[in-house]
Specification:
Number of helices: 7
Order of helices and strands: HHHHHHH
Helix content: over 70%
Distance between the termini: 11 Å
Shape: elongated
Number of strands: 0
Largest sheet: none
Radius of gyration: 17 Å
Oligomer: single chain
C-alpha cells in the first residue's frame, strides 16, 4: 500500500474523529470504514485483528451511547456549537497529552465557552459546565474515546508495519 493511500485512510480517520461531536456526522462509522478500507488493502493477520477489535469496540460504544439519555442534552441548554468546539479541542488534547488531554480539553473548552456565553463569573460558568458535562459529556466522551482508541490502534499497526 502506498503512502498516498495510507494518507487518505488517515484523512478519513481524522474526519471521523472530528465528526464524532458533530450532530448528524457519522464519525464512528467513518473511523470504522477507514480501518475496513485499510484491512481490505493490506490482507495481513494484524490488519484483520485490528478490524475485528475495532468492530467489537465500536459496537459496544454504540450500545453504551444509545443507552445514555440524549434528551438531557436538549434540556440542559447546551448548544451543539459548544459540543463541537469542545470535541475538537478534546481531539487535539488527546494527542498533546495522551488520554487525559482529551478529557481536560473537553471540560476546559466547555467552561470557557459557557463563561463567555453567559457573561458571568466563575460560579455561573462552573455551574453551567457541570450541567453541560452531565448532559453531554458522557455520551460524547464515550464515543470519542472509542474512536480515538481505534485510531490509535490503526496508527500503531501502520507504524509497526
Amino acid at each position: 500500500m502506498g503512502t498516498a493511500q495510507v494518507g487518505l485512510i488517515g484523512a478519513v480517520m481524522l474526519l471521523g474523529l472530528v465528526g464524532v461531536p458533530a450532530p448528524g456526522v457519522p464519525g464512528t462509522l467513518l473511523c470504522w470504514a477507514a480501518v475496513l478500507w485499510w484491512a481490505t488493502q493490506e490482507h495481513t493477520s494484524l490488519t484483520w485483528g485490528v478490524l475485528a477489535a475495532s468492530t467489537g469496540l465500536l459496537a459496544v460504544v454504540q450500545v453504551v451511547v444509545w443507552l445514555m439519555p440524549a434528551r438531557r442534552i436538549r434540556d440542559s441548554g447546551v448548544t451543539y456549537h459548544t459540543v463541537v468546539n469542545a470535541g475538537a479541542v478534546a481531539i487535539a488534547g488527546f494527542f498533546l497529552v495522551p488520554v487525559i488531554g482529551g478529557v481536560l480539553g473537553f471540560v476546559g473548552t466547555l467552561y470557557f465557552t459557557e463563561r463567555v456565553r453567559l457573561g458571568g463569573g466563575h460560579r455561573t460558568a462552573w455551574a453551567a459546565t457541570r450541567r453541560a458535562m452531565r448532559a453531554v459529556g458522557g455520551s460524547v466522551l464515550v464515543e470519542l474515546m472509542g474512536c480515538l482508541m481505534v485510531a490509535g490502534a490503526w496508527l500503531g499497526a501502520v507504524i509497526a508495519g
